[in-house]
Amino acid sequence: MALRVFNTLGGKKERFEPLEPGRVRMYVCGPTVYDACHIGHARSVVVFDVIARYLKAKGFEVTYVRNFTDVDDKIINKANQLGIDSMVVAEKYIKEFYNDMDALNVERATIEPKATEHINQIVEFVEKLIQKGFAYRINGDVYYSVEKFTEYGKLSGRRLEDMEAGARVDIDERKKNPFDFVLWKSAKPGEPAWESPWGMGRPGWHIECSAMSNEYLGETFDIHGGGKDLCFPHHENEIAQSESVSGKLFVKYWIHNGFVNINQEKMSKSLGNFLMIKDVLKIYHPETVRLFLLSNHYRSPIDFTDKALDEAKTGLDKIYALLERIEKEIGVQPDQNIEPGDCWQRFSDAMDDDFNSARGIGMLFDTVRSMNRLLDQKKNHGSPEIKKAAQSDHSDILRIGSILGILMESPKVYFQRKQTRVLEQQSIDPDVVDQMIAERDQARKAKNWAKSDQIRNQLADMNIVLEDRSEGTIWKIND
C-alpha cells in the first residue's frame, strides 16, 4: 500500500511522492521559548517525531528541521517581567524544552536552528522581497504587501476580500492593508536588535521560518508541519514570502495536527487551562503520555482527561505484560533480525493511510489479545508453530514500539519503575512491605492462619497484591 497523506493545501489525501526519490525534507515549526511547554505543544512534537520515525522505517533518508523562535515579543515581555536579558530567557526555556522532550522519548531533529543565529539570512530574504516589489518600508519597519501576492489565502481558504482585521492582526494605520504583516521591526529601547539596511531592529515571526527552511531545505521541500492554529496566518504568510522570492512552489505537502482539549476547549496559555508537560510526567509514565497523544488520529482533537490517561496506562501495561509473558513462557528474546510479520504489515497499512496511529494502536491491542489467547493454550507452548508466532509478534510489537516511541524499556525494568513510582506516590516504604511479608511467612509456618490473613488484608488495604510461589512470596502494586 502506498503512503497517502492529507494535504492541507487542497484539503484531500494525496499519494506521497517526495521531490527527490528516497529522500524527504521536512520542516516543522518549533516553540517560541518564553515559557515551559504544555501538553498541547507535546502533541505536535510527538506527532511529527512519529512521522519522521515512520518515514525512516520505510527507507527514506529524512532531513528534519525543527526551529526555535528565540526572539519575539513574548520572550521580551517575559524578560522585562523578570528583569533579565531576553537571551537568558530563551536559553532557559530551550533547555526546559529538551528536558521535557527527552523525557518523552522524542528524537532530536536533524537540524534545530535558532532564529537569532540566522539574522543575515533573514535580512537577505527581506531585501529580496523589497527588490521584487512585495515589501515596503515605513521608517525603520518593513512590511509585506499581501495584495501583491495573488494566491494569498490558498492554504487556509481565506480570501482577503472576505476577511476583516481581527485579533490576530496588528492594527497599524501606516500599513497599506490591515493584513500586511511585519518582516522587520525597528529597534525599541532595551530590546534586542541587529544591524540591517533599514536600521537596527529584529525580524518578524513569519520571516524567520521562511529564511531558515530555505537555508537548510531549499526553495521547495516536501513536508511542512505544525499545529492547526499555525495554518493562518503563520503558514499562509510563509507561503506568500517564500513563493514571492523564488517564484516556485514552497511546500508540496502541508500537515497540521489537531489540538489537545480540556473539557472540549482548546488548551492554551491564553485561556489559562494548560497543563505543563513536567507536571503531567510527575503522575504518568512518559510512554503512557505518548500512547495517549497518539490514540486519536493526529488531525482530530484529543481530550485530556484522567480517564483517557488511565486507559493509556492500562493499555501500556498490557503490551509490556504480553512481552514479559512471551519471554518467560516461550523463551523468546528480542531479536532485530526477525523479518517483519503480519502484525507489522497491518500497522504499516494503518500508518500508510495518513499516519493513522490510532488505527495502528488499535491493531496492536488486537494482536495483544489474540496472542494472549494463544498462550492460554498452555499445552501447545512447545509446538514450533506457537514459538514462531510468538517470536514474530514479539519482534513486530517492538518494531511498532520504536515508531510510536514506546516499549523503550525491558518489561522487568518497566514494571519495577512502575512499582517504585506508585510506592512513592502512595508513600509506601518497600522495606516495611518486605518486613510484613516476612512476618506473614513466619505466621504461616506456625500455622497461625488468622495472623497470616490479617497481614494479607493489611497489605490489600495498601493496594498490594501477594502471589505465593514455590520459591517464595512476591508482591506487586494493584493500581
Would you summarize the structure shown here?
This protein is an alpha/beta fold and 479 residues long. 46% of the residues lie in helices and 15% in strands.
Please provide a written account of the structure.
The protein is α/β, with parallel strands linked by helices and 479 residues long. It is built from 15 helices and 15 strands. It has a 4-stranded parallel sheet with strand order 4-3-9-10, with helices on both faces. Helix 9 runs antiparallel to helix 12. The two termini are 41 Å apart. The relative contact order is 0.11.
Write the layout of secondary structure elements.
Blueprint: E1 4-7, E2 12-15, E3 23-28, H1 39-57, E4 61-66, H2 73-82, H3 86-103, H4 119-131, E5 135-138, E6 141-144, E7 181-186, E8 201-203, H5 205-217, E9 221-227, H6 231-246, E10 251-257, E11 260-262, E12 265-266, H7 277-280, H8 286-293, E13 302-303, H9 306-330, H10 342-352, H11 357-376, H12 384-404, H13 411-425, H14 430-445, H15 449-461, E14 464-469, E15 472-477
Parallel strand pairs: 3-4, 3-9, 9-10, 11-13
Antiparallel strand pairs: 1-2, 5-6, 6-7, 7-8, 11-12, 14-15
Helix pairs in contact: 2-3, 4-5, 5-6, 8-9, 9-11, 9-12, 9-13, 10-11, 10-12, 11-12, 14-15
Fraction of helical residues = 40-55%
| Discrete helix count | 15
Poorly predicted segments: none
Net shape: elongated
- For the report, how would you describe the main beta sheet? 4 strands, parallel
CATH-level-4 superfamily name of the largest domain: HUPs
Output the CATH topology of the largest domain.
Rossmann fold
The tally of beta strands, per DSSP, is: 15
CATH class of the largest domain: Alpha Beta
Separation, N- and C-terminal Cα atoms: 41 Å
